[in-house]
Design brief:
By secondary structure, this protein is mostly helical. The protein is 86% helix and 0% strand. The longest helix is centred in the N-terminal third of the chain and has 42 residues.
Length: 263
């Protein structure tokens, strides 16, 4: 009887989780795949096909927001902005190939950030970004002003690519801190290039981004799985404790009855 109750309780705990995953994952995965296909089309300069895929993305995205609350308000706004930028950029014949690729890449990364529970695609840019930091420092050491400005521009472009995804995965205060450091470095380039004190802002930005990348990649376990494990374990422990207490009480009552009969 107790085992039946335990199984019933476990079913109640797991059913809502499995239902949510069954309903949301396929739809979010579909958006993720559409954004990836749109990016692949842009990379091979098939802009018309990429445009159609982006329009299809919009249709699917809107239907998801109507049917169920798949997204938070922030996610809704971030994805909408990234999508609009990607679509307008792809449609504009005067915009360069590189900017088209970057615009659709931003949408691809932010869609994946919403879809992925851990290790989103944007974390794979860690190597590129850290390499840019290293090259920037080498340019400063060699007093190479042109190289320094070139690498700062590259760093800003790389940050811009992952920025919408950061807003999905990071707390607002962390974003504000990164924005402040990035704005300082961009606005006061001459000081950063020549002044040791100002260069500390560049070092601080590098450490902040390293910390964020480490934080996003250190735990490979799906958080929802941990929730299930903890919840299920707690129920099992409570149930076994209850069974043990009932058994102890039953044995005690039995011994008491035997003792009274012997008297």
């Amino acid at each position: 009887m107790v085992i039946r109750i335990l199984l019933f309780v476990l079913a109640l705990v797991l059913a809502p989780i499995s239902t949510v995953l069954a309903q949301s994952s396929p739809d979010l995965k579909k958006l993720d795949e559409i954004s990836d296909e749109a990016l692949q089309m842009v990379k091979v300069k098939r802009y018309d096909e990429s445009e159609k895929l982006l329009e299809y993305f919009s249709t699917q995205f809107l239907s998801m927001t109507v049917e169920a609350k798949f997204f938070s308000m922030d996610e809704l706004r971030i994805i909408t902005v990234a999508h609009n930028e990607a679509l307008v950029t792809v449609q504009d014949e005067t915009i360069s190939y590189e900017k088209k690729v970057n615009a659709v890449t931003k949408l691809r990364l932010v869609t994946d950030a919403v879809y992925s529970n851990h290790q989103p695609l944007w974390t794979e840019m860690e190597g590129q970004i850290m390499s840019t930091f290293n090259q920037t420092k080498i340019a400063m050491k060699n007093k190479d002003s042109d190289g320094f400005h070139s690498y700062i521009n590259r760093l800003l472009n790389q940050y811009d690519l992952i920025y919408p995804s950061l807003k999905v995965d990071l707390a607002p205060e962390k974003i504000q801190k990164l924005d402040a450091r990035m704005s300082f470095i961009d606005q006061y380039r001459p000081q950063v290039f020549s002044d040791t004190t100002s260069q500390k802002e560049l070092d601080a930005l590098e450490k902040d981004l390293e910390s964020i990348f480490d934080e996003m990649t250190e735990d490979e376990t799906d958080p929802s799985l941990w929730w299930v494990i903890i919840s299920t374990g707690s129920i099992i422990i409570l149930t076994l404790s209850y069974v043990g207490w009932r058994k102890y009480k039953g044995d005690k009552e039995e011994k008491k009855s035997d003792k009274e009969l012997n008297h």
